[in-house]
Specification:
51% helix, 223 residues, mainly alpha, two-stranded parallel ribbon
C-alpha cells in the first residue's frame, strides 16, 4: 500500500515554501493589518466601554481584560488579549474540566462551561470577547486573518503535521471561525488552516473578513 501521508507532507512543504516567497503580499498584509486594527480600535471604543462596564457590574473584583500566553508564528509565545468572559479562577478550574472536553484533539471546548459568566456568554456568542485582539494585531503578534493561536499545552500534543499551521502569524479570524467554529473538530480545523496557508492572498483575506462580519450578525456555533 502506498504511503499517501508522506506525499501529503511533501505537497504541504512545497506550498509553504511558495508561501514564504510571497514578500509583496506579506508587506501589504502587515500594512493593512496595522491601519485596519488602529481604525478598528478607535471606532470600537464606545463598544469597549459598554462591555467593560457590563463586566464590572457583574463582577467588580475581576479585571475587564484577560491576557493569556498563546503560541504564535514559529512557536514564539506572546500574550493575547480578550475581554474576560470567565470567572477569575477559570485557569485553575480547567484541570477539573479536562475530562469533559467536547472536541477531539489538542484543544479544549465545553458548551456548558460553568466558568463562563452571564456577560461572558453573550460576548462569546457574538465574538465580542475577541475584539481586544486588535491590540495584538497592532503590535504585530497577530494578523487579522490567520490560524487560531493555540495554547502552550495544546502545542505540546501537536504532530509534525499540526505544527505546520504555526509557520504564519495567528489571526483574529480565519476559515475555522467562519465555518462552524466549535462545531468543527480539531483535525478539521488544522486542515482548514493549512488550506488557508496554501491559498492565502489579499483578496482571500478580504473574503474571510467579510464572512467574519456576517458571523457577527448571525452567530455560528461560538461558545
Amino acid at each position: 500500500m502506498m504511503d499517501y501521508t508522506n506525499d501529503r507532507h511533501k505537497s504541504d512543504n512545497i506550498k509553504f515554501s511558495y508561501h514564504r516567497e510571497k514578500c509583496f503580499y506579506k508587506i501589504v498584509k502587515r500594512s493593512f493589518d496595522f491601519v485596519a486594527s488602529l481604525l478598528g480600535l478607535i471606532l470600537l471604543l464606545p463598544l469597549f466601554l459598554i462591555v467593560a462596564i457590563a463586566i464590572k457590574l457583574e463582577d467588580s473584583a475581576g479585571a475587564v481584560f484577560y491576557s493569556q500566553t498563546r503560541i504564535g508564528k514559529n512557536k514564539k509565545p506572546f500574550k493575547m488579549y480578550k475581554f474576560r468572559s470567565m470567572t477569575v479562577d477559570a485557569d485553575e478550574r480547567l484541570k477539573e474540566l479536562l475530562d469533559k472536553n467536547e472536541i477531539e484533539g489538542a484543544m479544549f471546548k465545553m458548551k456548558e462551561d460553568p466558568r463562563v459568566t452571564k456577560v461572558g456568554a453573550f460576548i462569546r456568542k457574538y465574538s465580542i470577547d475577541e475584539l481586544p485582539q486588535l491590540f495584538n494585531v497592532l503590535r504585530g503578534n497577530m494578523s487579522l486573518v490567520g490560524p487560531r493561536p493555540p495554547l502552550p499545552y495544546e502545542v505540546e500534543k501537536y504532530t509534525d503535521h499540526d505544527l505546520l499551521r504555526l509557520i504564519v502569524k495567528p489571526g483574529c479570524t480565519g476559515l475555522w471561525q467562519i465555518s462552524g467554529r466549535n462545531a468543527v473538530g480539531f483535525h478539521e480545523m488544522v486542515e482548514m488552516d493549512l488550506q488557508y496557508i496554501a491559498k492565502c492572498g489579499f483578496l482571500f483575506d478580504i473574503y474571510v473578513l467579510f464572512k467574519t462580519v456576517a458571523v457577527f450578525i448571525h452567530p455560528n456555533a461560538a461558545y
